Amino acid sequence: MTEDSVRFCCELMAEQVEHECEHHPDRFTCPDALVYYSAKFDEYGLIIHDGSSSVSRIRFCPWCGAKLPPSQRAAWFAALESRGIDLWKDEVPPEFETDAWRRSVIPSNGNR
After folding, report:
1. Which residues belong to any copy of the DUF6980 domain (predicted)?
2. In angstroms, rounded to a whole number, what is the distance separating the alpha carbons of residues 41 and 69?
3. Which residues contact 49 (CB under 8 A, 6 or more apart)?
């Protein structure tokens, strides 16, 4: 599963996550971009338009009410630790910057 193959709970969520603005190449500066999706952590959040890259994590879709997948943030840190990677001293491997790390750690059952 890559960011390109994310399945969304509804069309409105898909539109928001995939929203691209010709005037604002950075989602965090675009007032029309409301939702951020992190493939690395499998997390959804509402963008806080305060001039930074802040998000407030959400657990349910604001449009259809569907429960969103559980965050994989703790699993990300655990996977790095199990490989002996110290975030303070070591470089994070490229596969940990995307969802590629999850394919080797979390078995896929075809569902989100």
Report:
1. 8-103
2. 10
3. 28, 31
- Phi, psi angle pair for 38, to nearest 5°: -105, 110
Q: Is residue 68 a contact partner of residue 44, using CB atoms and an 8 Å limit?
A: yes
pLDDT score recorded for residue 103: 82
What is the distance between the alpha carbons of residues 37 and 88, in angstroms, rounded to a whole number? 25
pLDDT recorded at residue 3: 46
- Chain mean pLDDT for the chain: 88
Domain boundaries, the chain: 3-58, 73-105
Cα–Cα distance measured from residue 99 to residue 41, given in angstroms and rounded to the nearest whole number: 7
pLDDT (tens digit per residue) in 94-111: 999 999 998 876 554 444
Q: Distances in Å between the alpha carbon of 96 and those of 15, 45, 76, 112?
A: 26, 20, 8, 19
